[in-house]
Amino acid sequence: MTYILNVNLERVIDCDYQINRGNHEMIIKTIFQNQYKKIISVIRSNYEFNNTMLSVGNIDTEILLGETMGFEGSKLKWNLIFNKLFKVILGPGYMRITVKDEQREFISNIIENLNKGRRKNNPFYSKRSELKVAPFSQQIRSYSTSKDIDLFKYVGEKEFFDKMSKYKYQKDLNKAQYDMEINWANSMLLYYKDKSHVAKDLTHQTDENLQKVIEKINIIKDDIKQDMIRKKYPKLYPFLSYEGSALVALVIARECIIRGEGYTNTCATIGITIVKDAYMRLYQNLSKTENFIVKINDPLFHLYSFDNFVKYLGLVNYDYATIGTFFLSFYMNGDTQIFDTYFSSGGDNDDPNFRYMLKYTDEHLDKLEEEFQIRPMLMPMLCPPGEWAKNKFGGYLSNNIMKEGFTIGTKVHQHKFSNEEIIYETLNNLNNIPFQVNNLLLNYLKGKGKFLLSKSVIDLEPLAVKRIMKIAEFFSDVDKFYLPHSVDWRSRIYCSPYYLNYQSDKLNSSLVQFSVGKPLDENGLNYLYIYGANIHGENGIGKVNYSKRIEWVIENKDKILKLDKNLILRAEDKIKFASFCLLMRELEANPSYQVHMPVFFDATCSGFQHIAAIMRDEKLGALVNLDEQSYQDNVSDVYKYLSTPINNEIRRVGAEDTKYINLKYVDLPRDILKRPIMTKPYNVTVNGIKEQIAKYFSKVYNRNINEKGMVVNNVMYLNVPSINSDRKVTITGVDLFKISNIIYNIILNELPQVKLLYNYFIGISSILSKANLPITWFTPSGLGITQNYKKENSKSILFKTYKKNIRSVLKDYTDELDKKKQVSAIIPNYIHSFDANNLMLVIRECMSKGNRNIMSIHDCFGTHPNDMINLYEIVKIQFV
Fold first, then answer.
1. What is the DSSP string of 441-481?
2. Which long-range CB contacts under 8 A does 388-394 form with residues at least 24 apart?
3. Residue pLDDT, tens place only, 610-668
4. Is the model's pLDDT at 846 over the cut of 80?
5. Euclidean distance between CA atoms 715 and 703, whole angstroms
6. What dihedral do alpha carbons 631, 634, 638, 643 form, nearest 10°?
7. Residues 6 or more apart in contact with residue 112 via CB below 8 angstroms
């Protein structure tokens, strides 16, 4: 049994260092004396004890314990008492103080005597208030106290933004941002410690459920047979706050439901957030000590960075999901159930997209939608992000503690960069671009434009729409905010926040504009018109020459200025087109209006563009618009070009082979064929093409009995377009696979240089894989990239939760080279790296010419309309 001492972990680890310097006796005495006095002072302030305590408030702790232990004299030798009663087990990051076996009965008697005094003299005595010796050994926690849970109260929308508003109005925005990242949870909790702003009789669902969950956790957390965390992760256990982890599980689960994450990913996100939270708080607690400050500069120290901490704990990918499942399970069972799982495909295992998803239970959905808690790392920043450099960790300001690199994605493989200075430069340039909310659009969407927020228009759940709009309102009076960026291991750039992310969904991206605006010049007005036509897309207007696109805007100007609802609803990107109409109305009233809205142009199938340049293939280059063009030239369309031979071959097979008779009248339009063609340069497989085009058709399953007497599900695809516009075709899964095979082969036959390059890359990568070597290449900017996939080791794991078991497949990786993956992945990774290289060179050149208004969405470029003509030239020059 362990005598529970709430020893501060800061002092414990500091003690660990000082013990190594020979001060064992002094440090143990100080810790024990101070902590024991705290316990006694709490007892004596409430109770009287006969024989043990002669009078309340007049007790000498040393004399008390000395008499109890049989020591003589007024002063106590603390080291002798400690050595007689306790044994100490020290480890890196924790200290366990355990009662010696021969002293257990003695300590129990002391506790029993104290409790007798309570029962006799305290009129408010209850058995629950008795002092106890813990039945299981308990390692000392870094920040867990029984009182913490009293602060975990409901945070509604108004309360959340009231509390967060104090940060955005501070003079020192760097400090405000840092405090917001570090203290967001505590701020929300402490806000509700004062209930003066809440009706006294107001109760909330989160408070009730969280309290019940904590009660369940407290029942099992000291029972090693039930507490999976303590049993499976003994190194992690001392650093966790179970109460805080329960809140994290609740908040993250809500976020993941909004984003449409699967159950396993949700659990993994909960798990890694819990571990990060533990590291962050531990770091804060220890950073004030002299010894820690000295140690923290040592890259080998286990608290030097979050990655070091994870290595010390011995955690791998599936451990995060296991940890997350443990805490999430309390919200999925019994009287605390507010979440449940379902199958995304309706429960049919034959569906390739089959997976567990998380959802609210029906009875809790409305109540939980009222609550509002968002992590700052999902939102824009109030100040410029931290600077990236070789020995500096940038992005969100709290990353100076976490020390996580700029590369997102899995870290289990051994991909790496060399000569990465251009990555630092690119991220720092993008991170320092100021943005603001598009208030013209925001106000319209809150009023007459509400019809654009329906799920049928933007394909977002109502709860997600509500949160995006509320975050936009929060930042609407901020003159400038900033968006941190990161890269994947191929150097593709990603905007980090979920909310107000210009790379995100149509609503998020449309609400973001440049903070620095300027009136339009003649070129700017022309490119604004061209952009307006592009995002509407009526009758393929985005594929005709620039002059005709400008004419289309002029012809429809009256409808545009009136924000004609029918015109807006016919647009391909309805929200962005509405934003364009709003800006046009402002320009009509004031031609000198300061324009902040970006305009974009997209590369024409950039994968084929890079292949055409590498192979010097003039035919392919012309199909993807690499040849010289003027305002009067129509845009080449490689998708339309390939659609004709693809459909001709599909119908030929249907007419000549009775096995595929359903294909005789199939006619797939450009929009269905676009994605398979666009992803072929990235080595999409036949099965990949099948999944891409299957999404356009309705699917049903026919259950039949095969020749062996077994029940089989035959999938049928309905509403497939045909050469007869008034009729649709029904095809089988076998038919769809044949169509996919035809698409795959026609692309390579029509574009032979693509096939030649594929064969070259596959041959080189096969040779290196057989030699068990990774693959390294250099982009034109000098950035070195090494592809080094490790073999996957999938595990089917049964999560034994509180009362419900859920089976899921999790990925782990070995140290062995994945030779098959090395070969299949080289083409898309190589092409993606060239996309990213072109973007980095473009950003560098734009910054050197004074254009700091730029957005990047992989092979899509955005800037102020006035700067588009220069950006267009820069993109072409840097591509070459």
1. HHHHHHTGGGGGGSHHHH---HHHHHHHHHHHHHHTT-S-B
2. 388/423, 388/424, 388/427, 388/428, 388/431, 389/424, 390/424, 394/427, 394/428, 394/431, 394/484
3. 898 888 888 898 888 887 776 677 778 899 999 999 999 999 999 999 999 999 999 99
4. yes
5. 9
6. 160
7. none
Rg (CA), the chain: 32
Angle at the Cα of 266 from the Cα atoms of 265 and 267, rounded to 5 degrees: 90
- The helix or strand, by DSSP H or E, that contains position 178, with its residue range, turns out to be helix 173-191
Structural contact between residues 714 and 700, judged by C-beta atoms closer than 8 angstroms: no
At 816 the three-state DSSP class reads strand
Structure token pair of residue 454:
């329906």
According to DSSP, the β-strands at 805-817 and 790-800 are antiparallel
Distance of CA 719 to the CA centre of its chain: 36
Q: Which range has highest mean pLDDT (97-101, 388-392, 458-462, 508-512)?
A: 508-512
Q: CA-CA distance, 757 to 613, in Å (whole number)?
A: 12
Q: What is d(CA 722, CA 647) in angstroms, rounded to the nearest whole number?
A: 10
Residue 237 is given by DSSP the state G
Instruction: Fill in the amino acid letter for 733.
Output: G
- Strand pairing of 94-99 and 86-91? antiparallel
Q: Please check whether residue 578 is in contact with residue 441, taking contact to mean a CB–CB distance below 8 angstroms.
A: yes
Q: Are 856 and 843 in contact (CB under 8 A)?
A: yes
Under 8 Å between Cβ of 358 and 256 = yes
How would you write 243-261 as a 3-class SS string?
Answer: HHHHHHHHHHHHHHHHHCC
Helix or strand holding residue 126 (H, E): none
Cα 499 from Cα 482, distance rounded (Å): 12
Extract the runs of DSSP E, i.e. beta strands, from 607-727: 698-705, 711-721
Question: DSSP 3-state assignment of 623?
Answer: helix
Phi, psi of 37 (to 5 degrees): -60, -35
Q: Which two tokens stand for residue 726?
A: 């008034």
For residue 805, the surrounding DSSP H or E stretch is strand 805-817
CB 483 within 8 A of CB 395: no
Q: By C-alpha distance, which of 820, 822, 825, 871 is closest to 850? A: 871
Residue labelled with tokens 């199938």 = 605
Beta-strand runs (E) in 68-223: 86-91, 94-99
Task: Say which residues have a Cβ less than 8 Å from residue 521's Cβ, sequence separation at least 6.
Answer: 866
Percentage with pLDDT > 90 across the chain: 40
Question: Do 604 and 610 contact (CB within 8 A), yes or no?
Answer: no
**DSSP 3-state assignment of 383?**
coil
Amino acid letter, residue 530: I
Confidence (pTM): 0.75
DSSP notation for 468-535: HHHHHHHHTT-S-BB--EEE-TT--EEE--STT-TTS-HHHHHTEEESS-B---HHHHHHHHHHHHHH
Q: What is the largest CA-CA distance in the chain?
A: 109
- Least Cα distance to 819 among 849, 791, 847 occurs for 791
Euclidean distance between CA atoms 411 and 401, whole angstroms: 19
Name 305's Cβ contacts closer than 8 Å, sequence gap at least 6.
299, 402, 403, 404
Distance CA 690, CA 743 (A): 10
Q: What is the pLDDT of residue 207?
A: 55
Query: Which ranges in 519-633 belong to alpha helices (H)?
Result: 522-536, 546-555, 557-561, 565-569, 574-589, 606-615, 618-623
* 398 alpha carbon, distance to own chain's centre: 16
For residue 290, count CB atoms less than 10 angstroms from its CB and return exposed for 0-12, middle for 13-18, buried for 19 or more: exposed
Query: With bands split at pLDDT 50, 70 and 90, how would you rate the model's confidence at 194?
Result: very low
Q: 69 CB contacts (<8 Å, ≥6 apart)?
A: 81, 84
Instruction: Provide the token pair at 429.
Output: 């340039």
For 770-790, b where at least 16 C-beta lie within 10 A, e where not — what string?
eeeebbeeebebebebebbbb
Q: How many residues does the chain have?
A: 880
